[in-house]
Amino acid sequence: MLIYFMKLLDSAYRKRKSYFYKMINGKALEKELEKDETTEEKEKKFEKKFAKFMGVKHASLFGSGNHALITGLEMSKLEKESDILIQAFTCKQVPRIISTIYNSQLADIDESYNIDLSKAQVLTGKKTKAIQAIYSYGKAINSKKIQEFCKKNELILIEDCAHSLGAKNGKKAGSIGEFSIFSLRKNLPVGSGGVLCTSNNEFYDEILREKEDSSRKFGIKKKLLEKPIVFFRKNFPHAGAPYVFLSKLGYGKEEMNKELLDRFEISLATHSLTILPEIINKTVANSKLLMDELGTEKFIFPREEKKEINVYTRVPIFFKRPNKAVEKIWWKLQQEGFETGLFYKTDFEITAGGKKENFLFSVKAAEHMVPVGVQGLDEKQIIELAERIKSFSK
Q1: Cα 371–303–285 angle (5° rounding)?
Q2: Pick from 292, 290, 311: which is nearest to 370 by CA?
Q3: What phi, psi does 93 have (nearest 5°)?
């Protein structure tokens, strides 16, 4: 039954991510996997390559972007009651993670779907010690403006680049903060993994000590499960992380989040870095093609500054006049095999609670915007997607 389920999942995932996986050179991946290196050596090699691409001193690999964020926040050692600025329109898990350690200070977004710095400025007070800048959907933030904001208010900058590997407006997204975090599965053809980047040597040493403690706690179980995980990765590469399989063996959610990456996964991530420029260029081209096909008569897209590079893992499509509720559009596209993840309408409503009137543009985004993935599509599929989206507009 488990093998049958994985085949179905693999097939479904293949349809949406076909372009990603076509880019992978099977022989090169196999060669990378079979190199005479320990898993730890492979991990260090990946981290070195990732740090070089980002232009930072250090990169550290984690089981997920969430775990990278949690570890970074814990190691920041801000005062316990510190406030961290973050936009209200985002995945509900992010402000929740912050609130387990510090206080989330919610701000509205602007038309870029990133935090509105003018609204954030009004909220900034004595207890505000940091800002978590989210590069929503792959939309770049002006590096000069966010750095000036942090300098003026004496804030630590945390860059949330879960959606935006390769994005750039001034300096590269993820290269200017105290630390930055990435979610590999949202940017590369891999099933899981997260990365934390920093150029602060002392902070990096703290991260390494925390990871060593975690490895001692979960390491034995990880080694026992590594071979079966590799089997599933090799035979069902499109299915993502085999969470069902692991949970049947008593591998808890917290442990999976921290310790899922295995030899095959790291090899796949390392190989993916060799084709990263091609992935970025294709994603940028697909995004532009979709926006050009849709036009601006019935849709609104974020404005772009000169020399800005937006690597949209999801293109945020704002319907001027949708002919049905956006959650129905989102669900219909999802049913038809198009990627519409990162739909934050419900998340925003939960995060904002009864104070939605404080987040006017977030409310508009929740009522009018559907994020649509383009990474796994060819030109014909992009045009087909555009025509389908048009059918939902008056």
Answers
A1: 65
A2: 290
A3: -65, -30
Amino acid, res. 24: I
Pair of tokens at residue 122: 């009004």
pLDDT of the residue at 223: 54
Q: Under a CB-based contact definition with an 8 Å cutoff, are residues 316 and 139 in contact?
A: yes
Q: Cβ contacts of residue 151 below 8 Å, gap of 6+? A: none
Strand 179-183 with 194-198, pairing:
antiparallel
Q: What is the mean pLDDT of residues 328-334?
A: 93
Q: Which residues does 165 contact at the CB level (< 8 Å), separation at least 6?
A: 173, 174, 182, 187, 188, 276, 280, 311
What are 42's two structure tokens? 């492979």
Question: For residue 166, what are its two tokens?
Answer: 């390769």
Cα(7)–Cα(3) distance, rounded to whole angstroms?
6
Which CATH architecture does the domain made up of 276-390 adopt? Alpha-Beta Complex (3.90)
Whether residue 197 contacts residue 50, with contact meaning beta carbons closer than 8 Å, is answered with yes
Residue 316 pairs in a beta bridge with 371
Task: For residue range 351-368, list pLDDT tens digits in order.
Answer: 998 899 999 999 999 999
Task: Name beta bridge partners: 125.
Answer: none
Q: Which helix (H) or strand (E) holds 62?
A: strand 58-62
d(CA 106, CA 245): 38
**79 CB contacts (<8 Å, ≥6 apart)?**
129
- DSSP letters, 251-311, are --HHHHHHH---HHHHHHHHHHHHTHHHHHHHHHHHHHHHHHHH-SSSEE-----TT-B--
Q: How far is CA 358 from CA 74, 91, 361, 375, in A?
A: 29, 18, 9, 34
Nearest Cα to Cα of residue 184 among 67, 44, 29: 67
Tokens of 203: 């902070």
In this predicted model, what pLDDT tens digit does every residue of 238-290 receive, in sequence order? Answer: 454 444 344 334 333 444 444 557 777 888 889 889 989 999 999 999 999 99
- Report the alpha-carbon distance of residue 255 to residue 244 in Å, rounded: 14
The amino acid occupying position 97 is I
